[in-house]
Model the fold of this input.
Amino acid sequence: MKEKFERKYKEKKPVVAICYDFDKTLSPDDMQAQGYIQSVGFDIKDFWKESNQLAENNDMDQNLAYMYKMYLEAEGNMVFNKNTLAEYGAKVKLFNGVEEWFERIREYGSQKNVIVEHYIISSGLKEMIEGTKPAKEGAFTKIYASSFYYSERGVAKWPAQVVNYTNKTQFLFRIEKGVLDINDPGVNDYFQPDKIRVPFRNMVYIGDSDTDIPCMKLVNSYGGYSIGVYNPDSKDKTKVYKMIKDNRIKLFAPADYSEGSEIDDLVKMIIDRTSANEKIENKYTACINEVKNEEKYDDRDEDEQRQDEIVSCLEISKNFAYTHHIIREAKKYKNWNDNQKDRLFKALKDNAQIKWILGDDDVYKFYFKLIECADETQEIIKDVRTMLKNVEKN
Done:
């Protein structure tokens, strides 16, 4: 059966996914402020002031507000379609070295037996990014950015996609699993660790400001590399200093992407490290698979194996969204053996990511059901019952 959505799968070679914000990361200024705002007769500061005020007055997402403002101000000034936005995108200035960067880094990865893919995750406009020279030359595996829905005549009518700092992280999970289409629900599926296409340890996120923090924090927490960049002309490091003090980024460098620059050296070192590290990971996977093939492991049926995997995932879960996902998987099973129950109870006590959301309906009901027939003489059962009662009181 043919898949409805195109997906990417685990490669024989390791994949490094480099994800970029756009404005002030690859370009020195907001893309809308490099021709478009001026062409509709606005001062740049006034445009953003009115756009932000529109958002505030109407409890509106700021990105929806600027998209509406662009659409509104185009009336009587231009035909507001893909071609127009792409033409403005073609005028967007890029930092030094950006145009040659993507292919050069991809080629370096190839020399190290690593596949390098470049992704944009931006609150800017997809149509404008698509008009830039790198995009037209196929630099990006995928561009995730705000975009418009167009009428049959090709005129923008409505937002089709809005990307803001809080929902940017979803695209990292899509890249991780190779489930790149924004409508593909497969992003919520469980993937065996050895089937993950781009483990977070092989991700690089490059950004410049607070709007990138959720992505930076996520990549950091899972062993990847978050790099903060600053304008090489102003040399203002205020934001990157704060981000590194707040443990949001691991590294920072000027946004100069020319060969031999700081960020060029950093990314190449990450590729070098990935090349070596994945050989160790492959050996680890081989060892695990060998154990799985042992007779004693094969005695377990598929459900028992899957339940063991679920317990292991809960034990190491590092974020609330993933914990909820694993709990949904766990609730599919009614019978747990004594060892699995002990581990599940211990996970609740030891892993703060579960403990903090015990009051959430799905987590509470799972543990309440699990403990119904538990042996009251066990100390851990008493502790878990106390935790559940505390939730009920609150």
Remarks:
- The first strand starts at residue 15 and ends at 20.
